[in-house]
Amino acid sequence: MAAEAWTHGPTKPRHAKRKYEIPDVDISLSNISNVFDYVKVNPPIYVKNAHDLKKYDLRDVDVFIVDPGDPNILPMSSVMYELFNTRIPVLAPWDNWGFAWRGKHVTGWAKKLGYYSFVPMGFKDVKNVLQAIKGIKFIRSLNILYIGDIPSNSVNADTDPIRLYEKFGCTITRIPFQEYANEVENADKKEAKEIAEKWLSSFNMMDNTETKVGKYASIYVGIKKLMKKYEANALTVDCAYLPSIELVPCVTAAMIIDEGFPFGCEGDTNQLISGAMMMGVSGQAFLMGNLFENALHKDIENNQIVINHDVLPPSMACEGCKINFRDFHEKHKGSTLYADLRKEMVTIGGMDFDSSEMWISKGKVSWTEDTVHCRISIGFDVENAKRIAREAIGDHQVTVFGDYMDSIQMMCNFLGIKIRSI
Fold first, then answer.
1. Separation between Cα atoms, residue 217 and residue 200, nearest integer Å
2. CA 209 to chain centre
3. pLDDT profile of the chain (422 residues), mean per 10
4. What single string gives the DSSP state of each residue in 22-47?
5. Residue 84, φ and ψ in degrees, nearest 5
6. What is the pTM assigned to this prediction?
C-alpha cells in the first residue's frame, strides 16, 4: 500500500505549489555555504543502521543533518542512538526557506534519548542555530592556560578538568605564578620594545605609564610565549594573589581578547567559558566584569545595571574615542585601559559556580565612566534591573555587542546547561 499509494501515488497538490514559493534568500543545504561563509556542507551519506556509520570518518563533523525517514523503522533507532550519543547536535534538514518540515521526527528521537534538538522554521532560526553550533565548536576547541592557584583565591569557579571536558570539551593546564613571573622577566626585549612602541602610538598614556610601558609590554610577550608553549588558546590568571601589582595582565588580557583568545579574570573559568560562548556565536570581543559594583540606588530605580572591571578590549570603544592607558586602581603601578563604549545593544550573561546554569538578558549601553577601582564602569539600560539583581548568577558577567539571546539559549540547550532569560 505504502509503495503504491504514497511513494508512487500522485504528488500532494499543495506540496507541488510549495516548490514555486521563492524565498528572499535561498538557504537550502545546497546553497547555505554561499549565505554563511563559515558553513561547509559535506556530501551526504546513506546508512541503514548504526553499523554503517563505522564506514565513515565523522570526527570533524560539527552538526548532523539527518532525514530519519519513517520514524517507526526499527534500524533507524540505532542510527539516532549513535548520533545523539556523540553529543554533536543533530538537526532535521530544511528547505530553501529554512523550514524543517519533518523536524518533529528528529526532536522525537531527541526526547526519547534524553537530548535536545531544534526545528528551524525560517531564515532567522537557521541563522541562530548555526551560530549556536559555531559557538559550540569554538568552546570545544579551547585549551585553557590557568596561571596561579586552584581553586582561585577570589572567585568561585569550576576548575574540575573532567567536568570541563565532559561538559564543554575544553581542556585546562595549570602553571604556578613563578613561571609566569619568570617569563615576563625574561621576555624578549626587542619584541617588548616593538609592542611598547605600538601602544605608545595607539593609546593616550596617563599616570606616567609611558615610563614603564616596556615592562607592561613584557607581560604581553611573556603571556603569548606561555600560550604558545602550552598550545593554549584561552587564558585565566588568579590575579588577586599575584606577587606584584606590576604583573597584573589587564592590558594584555584586553589585547588577546581582541585577537580572538578568551580570557577569564581571577581564575574565573566560568566567566571565561561564558565569554567564549558569546565570542563563538558573535565572532566579536567580549567585555567582562562585576555586576552592580560602582552602582547607585538610582541606577536600579532607573532600570540600569552596572558592570565594572579593568579589562576593556579596544575594539569595543566608541568610534573615534581616545583610549587611555592608565595605572591600576590609582596605585601608580600596573596598567589598565579606559575608553567610552559604543552606545549599542548588547547581550549580557553569566554562569553559575558549577557551570550547570546560565542567565542572559538584553540591554543597551547608556554611559561609561572611569571609576578607577575598578577602572571602567558601564551602565546598561535593561527591561528589569531588579529582576536581574535577584536572579543573576556567577561571580563575573560578560557582555557582547548585538542580540544573541536565541543563539546562546540554543547553545545551552545543546550543552545541557539550564538557561534563564531575564
1. 11
2. 32
3. 68 86 96 97 91 92 87 74 95 97 92 96 98 98 97 94 95 97 98 98 97 98 98 97 96 98 97 98 98 96 98 97 97 97 98 95 98 97 97 97 98 96 96
4. PPSS---TTTHHHHSTT--PPPP---
5. -65, -30
6. 0.94
